[in-house]
Amino acid sequence: MSILIDKKSRLIVQGITGRDGGFHASKMKAYGTNVVGGTSPGKAGEQVDGIPVFNTVRDAVKETEADTSVIFVPAPFAKDAMMEAADAGIRLIVCITEGVATLDVVEAYSYILRKGARLIGPNCPGLISPGKSLVGIMPSMIFREGSTGVISRSGTLTYEVVYNLTEHGMGQSTAVGVGGDPVVGLYYRELLEMFENDPETDSIALIGEIGGDAEERAAEYIRDHVTKPVAVFIAGQQAPPGKQMGHAGAIISSGSGTAAEKIAAFEAVGVPVAKEPGQIPALLKMLH
Amino acid sequence: MIPLKINSFNHMKIHEYQAKELFATYGIPVDKSIVCRSVEDAVKAYTQLDSQKVIVKAQVHTGGRGKAGGVKLANDEIELRRHAAAILGMDIKGFTVDRILVGQAVNIDKEYYVSYVIDRSTKSTILMLSKEGGMDIEEVARTTPERIHKFVIDPSIGVPDFLAREAAFKLFDDIGLVRQAAVIFQKLYTLFVETDASLAEINPLVMTKEGTIMAIDAKMTFDDNALYRHPKIAALNEPTEEEKKEQSAKSKGFSYVHLGGEIGCMVNGAGLAMATMDMIKLYGGNPANFLDIGGSSNPTKVIEAMKLLLSDRNVRVVLINIFGGITRCDDVARGLLEAFHQIKTEVPIVIRLTGTNEKEGRALLQGTHFHVAETMGEATRKAVELTNQHQD
Fold it and tell me: Which of the residues A182, A203, B135, B319 has an alpha carbon 20 to 30 A from that of B114?
């Protein structure tokens, strides 16, 4: 199975005529993702790597029956793109764009919820169900089909962990990068629930970082609802308080959101925390 | 109950007097006050304010100014001169006070707390209120969370009359006061949204002995990602020296945070960069900085990043940790060779390359003066070892 995306997912690329949109549309198509179309206002009728371009998401959905969209438009237009997708009936919206204003995300997220759709991102690398579908910018060659679910707030750190998993013969069912901003769509709790219910996932790697309290709440959720083995890595133990570490969401404020608190929360519910990213495969194998 | 987290550090700050000017523009009542840069200014303000008692407050981008002696009540001109002279030039947590706000002393009957803030867990703006005004709100949240009221705002309707009233009834019983407060809550929300604030806080909002409700302090921070559409607010930015360095890095496409250790790090990706700092510490070293050069790693970016790294005199060893995803490792290696052809440095450099085409990438670096490692563990151990050798 996998979660969220599989071979049947029908993807459109919003902003497909832009540099990043076009580049990654081709990459996704080459991987085997069912890329059925793209949008760029005023460019209907054009093609990008054989993918038809539409003026609006509504046109694209009507013509192609797309159910998933990935957004590459510049930050000032991301809110509109997310809402356009939701309004046209897209079920899963993945926003790659970085630097989107927080209140734009708040507004778009609220609209997406009302339309009954799901959001991943913004400021995220997207997701992949290896061997089935890639939606986003993840380097597909490091992934292998398998049964470990991966959830992460980071990009390259996720790849580091996935690379280690693959090297140790542990493929992935689905890997999701939820995004590094303070307000993003799907998060640990929802994804843990999906992996717990996915028959093809038998273990979960969770990669967290400083800032907020989502890891603490994930630990509670695991204690109460997750039966599958989970191993965790938390980045940012050396981060000084009050400093933004690249991700807008990665910031420690007034003694809350520190790596130490997060690690303690997981250890308190019996979830092992890796000291370095390379330890995750061994921890998961030990739990099996 | 949502745990209380106020994140105001990764956002642009403004001074109290600037926030009060914004408040006034939006019709939120504030005490009458004048910003001053000298004792003479303060004396002039004193005559203009036409009030026997005035309050003198340091204007700095940090909290705790009261405890530091940066807020004083003056009963006459002599006291005003004394306080103004003492506060101007004062150092509060590393900030030198160059401006003070002189304001009419208000007859306070009661103090309250009001703020709008973005809440990660509800993915919404929330309105927070408390009768415990004038105190450290995070402390109130820790010790007596039941004394904080929260309202999640639906962005599609904002703060309608009923919601503003419902909130105001949490603080006041008298309908006259409820009406005054409700309007303030609505105006503050409009200001919050229209300026893309990340925090708009009144602590305290006061009820005067005369029965008026007004803000006697004002704190606002703004979302950096939205400053492009608020040039007037962006113009109020007063970055510290450290922030300037960080902002200059940001304009070149990477993020840099100075930490003070001996091992300079250059990493692609924020999460991996944090993990690299953690590993250095785990293996007994001290990271000099956090430096994320972003997804791509072209030579120009590497050169700029290295210059920034090496401008830190404490750096004894440089650790480069690159995960080649879309950018292949052999391209990264060629970029590094090109970059270091231009940068001459005696500082030993450890490079760890992993990901797509890693073998080809590492092969290109063999036989050069770089120390090449395969895993993060190996690279970190090497960097710490080299630091210890170069410590004399």
Answer: A182
Q: What pLDDT, in 10s, does the model give residues B139-172? A: 888 788 889 999 999 999 999 999 999 999 999 9
Residues A159 and A276 in one domain: yes
- Look at A240 and B257 and tell me if their CB atoms are within 8 Å: yes
On whether both A92 and A15 belong to a single domain, the answer is yes
The CATH number of residue A227's host domain is 3.40.50.261
Residues 53-92 of B with CB under 8 A from A: none
Q: Which of A221, A27, A268 is nearest to B326 (CA)?
A: A27
Window B:290-309, CB contacts with A under 8 Å: 290, 292, 295
User: What's the angle, vertex CA B27, arms to CA B24 and CA B32, rounded to 5?
Assistant: 40
CATH of the domain at A84: 3.40.50.720
pLDDT in tens, B59-111: 999 888 888 999 999 999 999 999 999 999 999 988 999 999 999 999 999 99
Q: What is the DSSP string of chain A?
A: --SS--TT--EEEETTTSHHHHHHHHHHHHHT--EEEEE-TT-TT-EETTEEEESSHHHHHHHH---EEEE-S-GGGHHHHHHHHHHTT-SEEEE--SS--HHHHHHHHHHHHHTT-EEE-SSS-EEEETTTEEEES--GGG--EEEEEEEES-SHHHHHHHHHHHHTT--EEEEEE--SSSS-SS-HHHHHHHHHH-TT--EEEEEEESSSSHHHHHHHHHHHH--S-EEEEEE-TTPPTT---SSTT---BTTBS-HHHHHHHHHHTT--B-SSGGGHHHHHHHH-
Amino acid at site B215:
A
Q: Which residues in chain B have their CB less than 8 angstroms from residue A163's CB?
A: 323, 354-355
Burial class from Cβ neighbours inside 10 Å (0-12, 13-18, 19+) for residue B174 reads: exposed
Work out how many domains chain A is built from and give that number.
2
Structural domain that includes position A108 = 11-120
Residues of chain A with confidence (pLDDT) below 50: 251-255
Question: A278 and A143 share a domain?
Answer: yes
**Residue A56 sits in the same domain as residue A92:** yes
Q: Which residues of B touch A243 (CB under 8 A)?
A: 9, 257, 290
A279 and A143 co-located in one domain: yes
**Residue B257, token pair as written in the block:** 């945070």
User: Which domain-ending residue is among A120, A149, A173?
Assistant: A120
